[in-house]
């Protein structure tokens, strides 16, 4: 039985496609997104956006906030969110990021009632039914301005143990699909160009580089890894930072959680590969029963007609083991849905 990953929903505010909600201070809505008014200060706080209170479709326990922006040199964004339960007080403001700030310091990641923000995901100690976010625009260079294009809130409620026994079914039969996503190894120096990064582990930026190259962005792993590096947690694998990195290169990207293969397959059939986060014990894969992982990212780039999953796996130096490798849908389902069904979607 493949564990059911939970109940998931997304709230997306796309400023470049006409979203005009919330409260703004010294900002203006434009066709490109939300940005400071002309003549904003050349140093310091240039503007602020406060979202309306967002009523969730169900009481949630987990939340990941992601953003896409244009952040040229000389600007940065302070991104925060808070949550509250029905009839309760708001949590404190969680610091999601001081995105592109050169001297990032400690972030507020704790609330006495709702618990801790774990790098990129709030896994709350109690239910919440409302969320709200705030983005502050800062500049330290004359004429430089950030443009906020999109904010996405992915919120979830995991199932109880007995509910997680719901079986995940095979994707519906259909035509096979294989997207031309390039394969890159996280273990080869010619691909990563930095031995320290190889030692640290860069499956996340390597997977993101494959997808960004597929969408036409001429980036290298070393460049993506440096851009997405979280200097506070000292990680290359912060999901929100990876999505923001793709956003800084003109793409649309967000974290989305899945509990079935059909939703993943639909994206792939529309030309959108999906980066997925997996973990699994020994015995998960029949063809390699000793294989195990505490956490790894790879790219779903296709499906067979029968529903098996085709991936690019950066975790090997050998193309025959990493490029367009087919896995049984149920085995990869254990590794993916059993680990929470977390994916990163990137669109052009």
Structure description:
This protein is of the alpha+beta class. It folds into two domains: 7-163, Jelly Rolls (Sandwich), CATH 2.60.120; 177-347, Cysteine proteinases (Cathepsin B, Chain A, Alpha-Beta Complex). The protein is 18% helix and 38% strand. It is built from eight helices and 19 strands. The strands form three sheets. Strands 1, 2, 5, 6, 7, 8, 9, 10, 11 and 12 form a ten-stranded antiparallel β-sheet that branches. A hairpin with a 3-residue loop joins strand 9 (110-111) and strand 10 (115-118). The two termini are 36 Å apart.
In short:
With 348 residues, this protein is α+β, with helices and mostly antiparallel strands. It is 18% helix and 38% strand. The strands form 3 sheets. Strands 1, 2, 5, 6, 7, 8, 9, 10, 11 and 12 form a 10-stranded antiparallel β-sheet that branches. Strands 13, 14, 15, 16, 17, 18 and 19 form a 7-stranded antiparallel β-sheet that branches.
Q: What radius of gyration results from the CA coordinates?
A: 20 Å
The quaternary state of the protein chains shown equals single chain
What's the total helix number? Answer: 8
Helix proportion? 10-25%
User: At the third CATH level, what is the topology name of the largest domain?
Assistant: Cathepsin B, Chain A
Quote the beta fraction.
Answer: 35-45%
Mean pLDDT: 94
Count of DSSP strands: 19
What is the architecture of the largest domain at the second tier of CATH? Alpha-Beta Complex
The H-level CATH homologous superfamily of the largest domain, spelled out, is Cysteine proteinases
Largest sheet: 10 strands, antiparallel
Overall tally of structural domains: 2
Shape: globular
* Helix/strand class: alpha+beta
Low-confidence stretches: none
CATH structural class of the largest domain: Alpha Beta
Which sequence of SSEs, written as H and E, runs from N to C? EEEEEEEEEEEEEHHHHHEHEEEHEHE
């Amino acid at each position: 039985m493949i564990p059911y990953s939970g109940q998931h929903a997304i709230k997306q505010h796309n400023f470049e496609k006409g979203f005009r909600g919330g409260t703004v201070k010294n900002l203006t809505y434009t066709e490109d997104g939300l940005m400071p008014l002309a003549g904003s200060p050349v140093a310091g706080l240039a503007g602020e956006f406060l979202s309306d209170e967002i009523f969730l479709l169900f009481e949630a326990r987990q939340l990941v906030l992601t953003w896409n922006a244009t952040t040229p040199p000389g600007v940065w964004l302070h991104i925060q969110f808070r949550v509250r339960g029905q009839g309760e007080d708001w949590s404190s403001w969680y610091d999601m990021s001081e995105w592109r700030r050169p001297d990032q310091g400690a972030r507020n990641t704790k609330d006495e009632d709702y618990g801790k923000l774990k790098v990129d995901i709030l896994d709350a100690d109690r239910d919440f039914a409302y969320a709200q976010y705030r983005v502050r625009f800062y500049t330290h260079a004359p004429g430089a301005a950030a443009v906020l294009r999109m904010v996405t809130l992915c919120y979830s409620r995991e199932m109880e143990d007995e509910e997680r026994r719901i079986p995940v079914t095979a994707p519906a039969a259909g035509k096979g699909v294989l997207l031309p996503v390039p394969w890159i190894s996280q273990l080869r120096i010619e691909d990563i160009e930095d031995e320290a990064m190889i030692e640290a582990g860069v499956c996340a930026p390597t997977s993101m580089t494959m997808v960004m190259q597929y969408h036409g962005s001429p980036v290298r792993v070393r460049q993506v890894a440096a851009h997405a590096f979280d200097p506070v947690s000292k990680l290359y694998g912060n999901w929100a930072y990876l999505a923001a990195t793709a956003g800084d290169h003109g793409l649309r990207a967000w974290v989305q959680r899945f509990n079935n293969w059909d939703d993943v397959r639909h994206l792939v059939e529309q030309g959108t590969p999906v980066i997925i986060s997996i973990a699994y014990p020994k015995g998960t894969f029949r063809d390699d029963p000793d294989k195990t992982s505490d956490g790894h990212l790879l790219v779903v780039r296709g499906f067979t007609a029968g529903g098996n999953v085709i991936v690019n796996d950066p975790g090997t130096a050998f193309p025959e083991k990493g490029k367009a490798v087919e896995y049984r849908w149920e085995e990869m389902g254990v590794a993916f849905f059993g680990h929470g069904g977390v994916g990163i979607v990137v669109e052009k």
